[in-house]
Write a structure and sequence with these properties.
Pfam families: Ribosomal_L9_C, Ribosomal_L9_N. By secondary structure, the protein is α+β, with helices and mostly antiparallel strands. It folds into two domains: about 70 residues, Ribosomal Protein L9, domain 1, CATH 3.40.5; about 100 residues, Ribosomal protein L9, C-terminal domain (Ribosomal Protein L9, domain 2), CATH 3.10.430. It is about 40% helix and about 25% strand. A four-stranded mixed β-sheet has the order 4-9-8-6. A hairpin with a 2-residue loop joins strand 8 and strand 9. The radius of gyration is 26 Å and the shape is elongated.
Length: about 190
């Protein structure tokens, strides 16, 4: 099916372009969301009449997104979750959790704006990309820890999954540290 894009869509095209997409994608996503029109003569004329309004609205959204991106870019958010000794979470942190975390700090972010390939399942510092507008992105850091104290320690660079951090002991010495050189000499003699 051919559609006329009403806004820029990543991996598809710019506003005003006529592109060919699969019927299901057009029927279930592009048309209901108001991101495209069917490519027929009546809609082409309708689009040309509204083009200036659409471009102005797109520019307005882009400037709003850039203002939010400037405030968000590089910011860090802390999520406290229960996890095992090895750092594996009991559950996971999804796009909805990240959006709720950022929204709680006073920013309005939708979960669809959070770029996350797979849910986060370990503690630590995770860089997340937020797509605020098709042309504007911001990167934030999500600090996932068991407690607020651990979150502070992670920011300083401590590895909270090592044996020393968990049990307060040094990691097991290597095998060659058990043997002295003079003992090896006695065995060879």
């Amino acid at each position: 099916m051919e559609v006329i894009l009403l806004e820029r869509i990543s991996r598809l095209g710019q506003m005003g372009e006529t592109v060919k997409v699969k019927d299901g994608f057009a029927r279930n996503f592009l048309l209901p969301q108001g991101k495209a029109l069917r490519a027929n003569e009546a809609n082409k004329k309708k689009f040309e009449g509204q083009r200036a309004q659409l471009e102005a609205r797109n520019l307005e959204r882009k400037t709003e997104a850039q203002a939010i991106a400037e405030k968000l870019d590089g910011k860090s958010f802390v999520a406290v979750r229960s996890a095992g000794e090895t750092g594996q979470l009991y559950g996971s942190v999804s796009t909805r959790d990240i959006a709720d975390l950022i929204t709680a700090e006073g920013f309005s972010i939708n979960r669809n704006q959070v770029e996350l390939n797979t849910p986060i399942k370990t503690i630590g510092l995770h860089k997340i990309v937020l797509t605020l507008h098709p042309e504007v992105e911001a990167t934030v850091t999500i600090n996932i820890a068991r407690t607020a104290d651990e979150a502070e320690r992670q920011v300083k660079g401590e590895d909270l999954t090592s044996a020393e951090a968990i049990y307060g002991i040094e990691e097991a010495p290597l095998a060659d540290e058990f043997f002295d050189e003079d003992e090896e000499g006695e065995e060879n003699a």
